[in-house]
Write a structure and sequence with these properties.
16% of the residues lie in helices and 37% in strands. With 295 residues, it is an alpha+beta fold. Strands 1, 3, 4, 6, 11, 12, 13 and 15 form an eight-stranded antiparallel beta sheet that branches. An eight-stranded antiparallel beta sheet has the order 2-5-14-7-8-9-10-16. The structure holds 2-acetamido-2-deoxy-beta-D-glucopyranose (NAG) (2 copies). The site of one 2-acetamido-2-deoxy-beta-D-glucopyranose has 2 residues, from loops. It is found in: Secreted, Cell wall; Secreted, Extracellular space, Apoplast.
């Protein structure tokens, strides 16, 4: 190939490969359950939890790598017992999953954000933090960034968690299964608030989570049998090569930059309330990835 034609290939590839960069609910998502608990209010989408049901939606497509974001305003007032979740997940017993779970609390008490990472069907990697703002007063952006090097959880672009690829240490990393994007609200008063001691007070129902601005900038995988399971085809399709370059494969995306590292350190020092990596009662042997994590 001449220099010119490879350059041309680069730009053609950049435009043509299946990157879905969109920000419209109807285009990207569909209700998954309790359609009658969805309220469309102009540009806002509200999901309602009452004593009959919660509600949830999922992406129409599956994706590998890229970034997904939502803007979310959490249940106001007494939200104890409720959980609102935003997550990516593949399917099947060996599924991978990246979770944000917002755990409601009594009026005036801080919301906790729990994150978790499942690899090959195994989770147990919870971290919890209190946010540095009241997430029920305004919309804030919650994002998951995913490439072959790391999974990063972000709140208003501030990284709150990084799950690093440590395959060179023999630790499996989720990068072979296409994932859907999901969100839901449900009653979890058996565990969500202060370990289940505080129950949902149904006299405060309905509990409403409000969404706007849905963004998915990721490699879209064809829907079908192959997309639900681990598919080498999808992995290949969604990886940069000679003739196509994805922004999430840029060298600068392979780890946090200095500013982001400082932000993460600040979050961990000031807002972290639980980290499975330091829970020696639960894990007498420190989980392998914790030993190697720099953070
Ligand atoms: C749900 O709550 C409403 C209003 O408080 C009440 O009238 C109704 O009986 C409840 N239903 C169930 C199934 O608990
Ligand atoms: C709720 O508030 C209490 C008291 O401030 C706090 O200890 C707890 O972590 C908060 N979050 C949850 C989910 O219980």
């Amino acid at each position: 190939m001449t220099k010119m034609s490879s350059l041309l290939g680069f730009f053609v590839g950049l435009v043509l490969v299946g990157v879905a960069a969109s920000s419209n609910f109807e285009e990207l998502y569909q209700p998954a359950w309790a359609f009658d608990h969805f309220i469309h209010d102009g540009e806002l989408l509200k999901l309602k939890l009452d004593n009959y049901s919660g509600a949830g939606f999922g992406s129409k497509s599956k994706y590998m790598f890229g970034k997904v974001s939502i803007q979310l305003k959490l249940v106001e007032g007494d939200s104890a017992g409720t959980v609102t979740a935003f997550y990516m997940s593949s399917e099947g017993p060996n599924h991978n999953e990246f979770d944000f779970e917002f755990l409601g609390n009594s009026t005036g008490e801080p919301y906790s954000v729990q994150t978790n990472v499942y690899v090959n069907g195994v989770g147990n990697r919870e971290q919890r933090l209190d946010l540095w703002f009241d997430p029920t007063k305004d919309f804030h952006t919650y994002s998951i960034f995913w490439n072959q090097r790391q999974v990063v959880f972000l709140v208003d672009e501030t990284p709150i968690r990084v799950h690093t690829n440590l395959e060179h240490k023999g630790i499996p990393f989720p990068k072979d299964q296409a994932m859907g994007v999901y969100s839901s609200i449900w009653n979890a008063d058996d565990w969500a608030t202060q370990g289940g001691r505080v129950k949902t007070d149904w006299s405060h129902a309905p509990f409403i989570a409000t969404y706007k601005d849905f963004t998915i900038d990721a490699c879209e995988c064809p829907v079908g049998v192959s997309s639900s399971a681990a598919s080498p085809e999808n992995a290949k399709r969604c990886s940069s090569s000679e003739d196509k370059k994805y922004w999430w494969d840029e060298p600068t995306m392979s780890e946090l930059n200095l500013h982001q590292s400082h932000q993460l350190m600040w979050v961990r020092a000031n807002h972290m309330v639980y980290d499975y990596c330091t829970d020696t009662a639960r894990f007498p042997v420190t989980p392998a990835e914790c030993v190697h994590h720099r953070h």
